[in-house]
Design brief:
By secondary structure, the protein is an all-alpha fold. Helices cover about 70% and strands about 0% of the residues. The protein has one domain: Up-down Bundle (Ferritin). The longest helix has 29 residues. Pfam families: MiaE_2.
Length: about 220
């Protein structure tokens, strides 16, 4: 279905807009990326456990890390089920993901925690959405796996407490969050463009959905998205 849109000057080309269900990712690369990202969640949360002094915070972060590990292991099991090599699948897509994790690492524990909250939320939403167009023998299982409990409530509790202590912390984190969105959407666009040759403006509805969900998460923290 052709949907009208504003065109750049001198352009008469229209674009067929696509939704998550139109993207049909390659299962092998999808699973490799998703598994590497969940493993990155485990690594990030594990490091943060040592950065926070309160034992209730350590417990919250450890719980979230456990959920991420379960998702990673579930994705590895799906690769194995398809007679794939999980290590090779993750290695093939690791470079941009590892670079992304380096540039979005915060300079302090609270920055790093917000980095995790923002980037994991956006990327998990992306991969849950993409699961809808995986083959029917795979997509529902993966969508259910990635949509399971993530320990978000405990992380939000820590962020809300730290923001309430100093209003300046909230203002800074709001700015940091806006930078994180840009970096995360660049990685998300790379993933989507790999899966959909149309790319460009055609996939904007996908990103609109991701940003809307991100805005709700930031609103819940009292931060401006």
């Amino acid at each position: 279905m052709e949907i009208p849109r504003l065109r750049a000057r001198g352009s008469s080309r229209s674009v067929t807009r696509v939704e998550f269900t139109d993207l049909h990712p390659d299962p092998e690369s999808y699973l490799g990326r998703a598994a590497r990202i969940q493993l990155g969640h485990v690594e990030t949360l594990g490091a943060l456990v040592g950065d926070f002094e309160r034992f209730d915070d350590k417990e919250r972060l450890s719980t979230a890390a456990g959920f991420a590990l379960a998702k990673h292991q579930g994705l590895v099991a799906e690769i194995d089920r398809r007679d794939g090599d999980a290590s090779a699948s993750m290695s093939a897509v690791a470079a941009p993901i590892d670079h992304f994790r380096r540039i979005t690492r915060g300079a302090s524990p609270i920055e790093s925690l917000l980095s995790f909250h923002v980037t994991s939320g956006l990327l998990d939403d992306l991969f849950i959405g993409l699961a809808a167009s995986l083959p029917t023998d795979l997509g529902p299982r993966v969508g259910s796996l990635l949509g399971a409990e993530a320990g978000t409530t405990g992380i939000v509790d820590i962020l809300e407490r730290e923001i309430s202590v100093d209003r300046r912390t909230g203002s800074f984190l709001a700015m940091w969050g806006r930078r994180l969105v840009g970096d995360t959407l660049l990685l998300a666009r790379e993933v989507v463009d790999v899966h959909d040759a149309r790319g460009g403006d055609a996939v904007e509805p996908v990103f609109t959905e991701l940003i809307a969900a991100h805005t709700r998460r930031m609103d819940a923290l009292g931060l401006t998205a």
